[in-house]
Amino acid sequence: MADCASLRVPLCTEQFGSRAPRACRAAADGSLQWDGARRWGWLSGNPASEPGQDAGGGGGPWAALPALSGLRAVLLPQGFPDSVSTDYLPYQLWDSVQAFASSLSGSLATQAVLQGLGVGDAKASVSAATSTWLLKDSTGMLGRIIFAWWKGSKLDCNAKQWRLFADVLNDIAMFLEIMAPMYPIFFTMTVSISNLAKCIVGVAGGATRAALTMHQARRNNMADVSAKDSSQETVVNLAGLLVSLLMLPLVSDCPSLSLGCFILLTALHIYANYRAVRALVLETLNESRLQLLLKHFLQRGEVLAPASANQMEPLWTGFWPSLSLSLGVPLHHLVSSVFELEQLVEGHQEPYLLCWNQSQNQVQVALSQVAGPEAVLRAATHGLVLGALQEDGPLPKELAELREQARAGPKKESWILVRETHQVLDTLFPKFLKGLQAAGWKTEKHHLEVDEWRATWPLSPEKKVS
């Protein structure tokens, strides 16, 4: 039989996810005795329902009642919170608020469109309503195809900005639908424009949702995260439907009240979307985040953490950068003679060639066949450093001297400045890259916008010998 000492020494332990582990000891009769076995949570065989423990191992609202524990299993990904990114919960909460507001606004807009089509009007023509509906749908389909061709490759790079853009555009589309019945002569044109905007919203919103799901899924569980996101949205839309059934009879006979409700709901929708997007903490680098980090690094010698940089990232102005940076352009855009090619190649052996137009503040980069993520990141950093020479503000000594040389006396040739910044980056970039990795940024992949052109060129003469 087991003695008293053996009762105190655990034979083994187990834990569910990140919850506090429980120990197993040998009982006096030789059976296994688990700590906390009398708790109904463990006896039920469902650790997720153990009272007094939440996902982090402590007390929490999800574990307070069996109903909340069941709701968690239905609406949240398996293994939450360890199976998703740390920004998952705040983002999803604000996303639910915006979806609820959008559901109510959509009900008001749908009612207005149906009134404009003649629902409830004995004089309305079915064929006219059908023609309007078909024209509206065909306009939207064409818009969806054109927008996906025009901006599809850019949606990954600026997922937050395009997500916010899509929701604001959706509000504009619904506003057009509400206003359409007030001007019957323009009704068909108005609802067609509105549906065009909604189809663009569908492309931008769907694509950015996929990009954000990829960011949030941390255990190769994109399907689960996406499915639970769909469940959350369905629950919110059901709640919105019930509230709409109560709201619509109250505002249907008063256009001004309906418009007032729509304005309030739109304000809530935009605010909740802003908070949702601002809650995201993306650890991959796009151009705006890289520019923000590089500027801070050049001024203070340190790299911001992802949480700090994401809070500072512009959400409205990211579409119009001050520097035009093009990565992966065709080589014939950069050079038109042997001399120009030699000037770009001379003095370095990096797998990219860079051309800088100072007057237009435009940087074009041709990439080699062997250029990987780190080379692309250095090329983008190089272009942003050249852009920083055009701006005021503190810079490291070497770059400050280059800026003075570029501004004083006869203007230096662009290719000379490019070559000199290559030499500065030989020292600067490894420190910057190490700082990025130490701060928690993912440098093995990026969300920089890169075209598909690749090229080969002769090595620099002074490098051939080595």
Describe the model.
Its main location: membrane. Belongs to the RUS1 family. This protein is mostly helical and 466 residues long. It contains 16 helices and 6 strands. The protein has 3 domains: 48 residues, no CATH class; 192 residues, Up-down Bundle (Growth Hormone, Chain: A); 178 residues, no CATH class. The chain is 57% helix and 6% strand.
- Count of beta strands: 6
Looking at the structure, the CATH topology of the largest domain is Growth Hormone, Chain: A
| Spatial separation of the terminal alpha carbons | 76 Å
Gyration radius (Cα, Å) is: 29 Å
Largest sheet, if any? Answer: 3 strands, antiparallel
Q: What form results from the Cα inertia axes?
A: flat
Order of helices and strands: HEEEHHHHHHHHHHEHEEHHHH
Task: Order the strands across the largest sheet as they lie in space.
Answer: 1-2-3
**CATH architecture classification name of the largest domain:** Up-down Bundle
Question: What structural class do the secondary elements suggest?
Answer: mainly alpha
Q: Provide the number of structural domains.
A: 3
Number of helices: 16
* The level-1 CATH class of the largest domain: Mainly Alpha
**Strand-residue fraction?**
5-15%
Quote the average pLDDT. Answer: 84
Identify the CATH homologous superfamily of the largest domain.
MFS general substrate transporter like domains
How is this fold's topology laid out?
Elements: H1 4-8, E1 12-14, E2 22-26, E3 32-34, H2 40-43, H3 66-75, H4 88-117, H5 126-151, H6 159-179, H7 187-216, H8 222-251, H9 255-279, H10 287-300, H11 306-312, E4 324-327, H12 338-345, E5 352-357, E6 362-367, H13 373-388, H14 397-407, H15 414-439, H16 461-464
Parallel strand pairs: 4-6
Antiparallel strand pairs: 1-2, 2-3, 5-6
Helix pairs in contact: 4-6, 4-8, 4-9, 5-7, 6-7, 6-9, 10-13, 13-15, 14-15
Main location: membrane
Domain Protein root UVB sensitive/RUS: 69-300
Protein name: UPF0420 protein C16orf58-like
